[in-house]
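can u do me a favor
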């Protein structure tokens, strides 16, 4: 570990200091500008991001606008060690930090990276893959954050803060059109109702055509239509009481995400049937955007909720209450055989036609209540204490019509989680420059499940319930060597509660033996600095985290040849590396940023892991299982970096100024399979984006932006699948392409009033 960290740290340090040396001469010419101070709530109180002993990427509203960040998947351009694993639907997609994340089919398993909007946590993975609308800032906390944020933050937190009502009237409307036929409208108004009451109302609508061609029906899929509303009220009830009310609704419908052929053996068969037209007119490759299916996948979601925040000033002590309700409905219909083969027609002589399909409907209801008491900053100390309660109930029905080797399924399940927690954090300042912060959280969680199999046991419900308690801690030491430079060291424990693997074939044995909790111990050291008269930011972090019983999903093949999905506890996992963030102002017009990370995420020991499709005994497979030692963690590139250049300047005597923004993000090769499948690897790639336009100077009334995403038309995949079990053991590899895998251009018009 030490050797790896030393090598990575040397590489990044040299890069960082080379960058700073290169830019030092130019910095001297800057006379007026300084770096924007970003205030975050990463420790549940307002603080400058440069003053807290945590690895945090803070992204302002200005940065989001300049770079044209429109959804959460694009945050990988801004934060080191953040990646997004995109599956064939929203529920199979997730965030990863430092190589750690959770991809699950089960409704009973939460994420390792918590996704939070305005202090309300998302329960289901699909909620995190969403549009970014009217955002004030985004905070990405890297490493375990369980002490303050709870049991689903064992790898980190993505914390999103939406814009608040304003003291004066303002409004905006933004229109977007692209050459791949996407049209978007975003509108917002905000202002006072009275001296003590303000409001903000935001609405958005978008519609985009598909980019994957279904040759069988002559239509493009992977299209998307979304719309939503968010309303906020801010009420100053008295000099000591302030209340914020928020309500939201959004809906999304898409035919994403189609699987196209990467490689297909001519002898491949669908359930024993020769698929005569499965690849007709298609050349399987890593650039294949064509497929054949009876219909495209159908994916729809609807999210609504409300929350109330009340702040009470008790002689400089702040008592905060946050009450929230969230409802998420999700439906996914898919083609199980991934072809247009008339399987039923083959078996019935044409009497019944069609292929195999699946239907899934999910609904989650979530309520939470948090109380916090924040002390003022006394001479030597401050503290925060709190209590938290949450309850989530998820109902799911799943239907998969009969066919081997896919298990026929018709079941319904209800998963319920109820959590209680007490937490606190205390900071002691030995001197003005040196302080220590300790945190503690007691968490109790009750889980239950009711499962009904309509095929195998229609009259018998499988039920289970269990409970678990955990005490978690964190400790950090920070020292300011000057007003501009802060060093810190941190230890933190992470925890993600036990869970039920609620999938097809769920049994009483699984109900009596839930998946064990995921725990972690993390160590990190770092430095944060704002140098050269607040024109250069340079932050670096080195970390090591060990995970026990990491909750991971993989596929398996039963002795009968059936393909199943299950969740296992990985015995031991380690992730270590370094992260660097830098930003520099050159003169009055140019800003450069460089972020990089080196991550060594390794499965140290995983006994009894599922074999990958086609794995032989010589490759370590015995009885359908393998022992993984020093294996790759999926979706965890070793190296990742991004470069951002932003230039703006007045254009003579014109009433507007011009701007140009360029970003380039590169990541190392990776494997999409936990089971170490050599056929699901992806080469390294980089993506460039360009924004340029004009902005009105005097009152910032209008902005016109021309943009090109994926400037060089770099082809890359969001996932690679191996379907050999479905196709008679013959090579059958699939691609998943996100929208960003092809170049597209557009124009964005924004008018402020």
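np, heres the sequence
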């Amino acid at each position: 570990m030490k050797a790896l960290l030393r090598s990575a740290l040397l590489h990044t340090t040299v890069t960082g200091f080379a960058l700073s040396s290169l830019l030092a001469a130019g910095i001297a010419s800057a006379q007026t500008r300084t770096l924007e101070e970003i205030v975050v709530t990463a420790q549940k109180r307002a603080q400058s991001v440069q003053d807290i002993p945590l690895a945090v990427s803070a992204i302002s509203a200005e940065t989001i606008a300049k770079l044209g960040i429109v959804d959460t998947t694009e945050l990988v351009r801004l934060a080191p060690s953040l990646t997004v694993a995109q599956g064939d639907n929203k529920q199979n997609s997730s965030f990863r930090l430092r190589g750690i994340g959770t991809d699950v089919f089960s409704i009973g398993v939460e994420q390792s990276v918590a996704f939070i909007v305005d202090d309300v946590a998302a329960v289901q993975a699909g909620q995190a893959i969403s549009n970014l609308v009217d955002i004030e800032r985004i905070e990405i906390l890297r490493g375990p954050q369980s002490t303050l944020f709870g049991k689903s933050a064992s790898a980190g937190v993505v914390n999103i803060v939406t814009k608040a009502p304003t003291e004066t009237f303002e409004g905006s409307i933004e229109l977007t059109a692209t050459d791949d036929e996407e049209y978007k409208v975003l509108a917002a108004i905000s202002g006072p109702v009275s001296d003590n009451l303000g409001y903000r109302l935001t609405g958005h609508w978008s519609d985009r055509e598909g980019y994957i061609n279904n040759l069988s029906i002559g239509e493009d899929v992977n299209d998307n239509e979304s719309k939503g509303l968010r309303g906020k009220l801010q009420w100053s009830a008295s000099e000591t009481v302030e209340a914020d009310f928020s309500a939201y609704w959004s809906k999304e419908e898409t035919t994403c995400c189609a699987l196209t052929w990467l490689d297909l053996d001519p002898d491949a068969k669908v359930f024993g049937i020769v698929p005569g037209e499965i690849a007709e007119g298609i050349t399987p490759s890593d650039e294949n955007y064509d497929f054949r299916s009876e219909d495209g996948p159908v994916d729809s979601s609807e999210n609504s909720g409300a929350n109330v925040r009340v702040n009470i000033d008790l002689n400089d002590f702040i008592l905060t209450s946050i009450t929230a309700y969230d409802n998420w409905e999700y439906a996914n219909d898919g083609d199980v055989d991934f072809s247009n083969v008339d399987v039923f027609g083959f078996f019935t002589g044409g009497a019944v036609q069609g292929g195999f399909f699946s239907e899934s409907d999910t609904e989650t209801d979530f309520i939470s209540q948090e109380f916090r008491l924040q002390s003022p900053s006394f001479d030597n100390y401050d503290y925060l204490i709190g209590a938290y309660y949450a309850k989530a109930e998820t109902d799911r029905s799943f239907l998969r019509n009969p066919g081997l080797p896919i298990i026929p399924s018709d079941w319904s399940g209800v998963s319920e989680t109820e959590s209680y927690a007490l937490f606190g954090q205390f900071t002691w300042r030995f001197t003005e420059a040196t302080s220590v912060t300790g945190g503690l959280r007691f968490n109790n969680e009750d889980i239950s499940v009711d499962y009904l199999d309509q095929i195998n046991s229609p009259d018998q419900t499988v039920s289970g319930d269990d409970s678990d308690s955990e005490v978690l801690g964190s400790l950090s030491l920070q020292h300011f060597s000057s007003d501009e430079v802060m060093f810190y060291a941190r230890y933190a424990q992470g925890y993600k509660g036990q869970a039920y693997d609620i999938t097809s074939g769920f049994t009483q044995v699984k109900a009596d033996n839930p998946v064990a909790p995921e725990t972690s111990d993390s160590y990190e050291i770092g430095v944060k600095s704002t140098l050269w008269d607040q024109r250069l930011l340079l932050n670096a972090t080195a970390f090591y985290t060990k995970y026990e019983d990491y909750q991971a999903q993989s596929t398996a093949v039963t002795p009968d040849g059936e393909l199943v999905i299950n969740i296992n506890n990985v015995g031991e996992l380690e992730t270590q590396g370094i992260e660097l963030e830098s930003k520099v102002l050159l003169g009055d017009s140019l800003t450069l940023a460089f972020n990089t990370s080196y991550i060594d995420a390794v499965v140290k020991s995983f006994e009894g892991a599922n074999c990958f499709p086609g794995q032989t005994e010589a490759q370590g497979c015995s009885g359908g299982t393998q022992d993984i030692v020093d294996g790759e963690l999926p979706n965890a590139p070793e190296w990742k970096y991004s470069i951002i250049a932003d230039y703006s300047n007045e254009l003579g005597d014109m009433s507007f100024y011009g701007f140009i923004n360029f970003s380039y993000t590169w990541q190392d090769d990776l494997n999409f399979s936990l089971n170490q499948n050599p056929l699901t690897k992806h080469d390294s790639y980089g993506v460039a984006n360009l924004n340029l336009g004009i902005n009105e100077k005097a009152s910032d009334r209008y902005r016109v932006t021309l943009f090109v995403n994926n400037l060089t038309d770099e082809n890359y995949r969001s996932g690679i699948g191996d379907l050999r079990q479905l196709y008679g053991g013959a090579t059958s590899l699939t691609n998943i392409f996100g929208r960003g895998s092809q170049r597209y251009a557009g124009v964005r018009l924004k008018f402020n009033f």
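The chain has five helices and 42 strands. hope that helps!!
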